[in-house]
Amino acid sequence: MNKVEKMVTKTALRIAFSWLLLMVFTVVSANAENISAHTPTSKNMVYYPQGCRCCTFIWKPMIRCGKVCCEEGCC
Questions:
Q1: Could you list the residue range(s) of the whole structural domain that residue 13 is in?
Q2: Which of 25, 26, 45, 62 is the most buried (most CB within 10 A)?
Q3: Which residues form the signal peptide (predicted)?
Q4: Model pTM?
Q5: Secondary structure, 3-state, the chain
């Protein structure tokens, strides 16, 4: 390979890598906007077989129940 061919190959690789980064950024950004649609509200509570339910959730670092309610209308 001569010097010009090497330069063209490096330029093509840089362009391909830039497009790849742009596509990854676009996919991650589009997915981040949809996360708020999946957060539970008071209408979307989890009911447990024991009669108790989880009213609020703590999302970070792991998903866990923030408030448990075992009576009617306490959430």
A1: 1-38
A2: 45
A3: 1-32
A4: 0.41
A5: CCHHHHHHHHHHHHHHHHHHHHHHHHHHHHHHHCHHHHCCCCCCCEECCCCCEEEEEECCCCCEEEEEECCCCCC
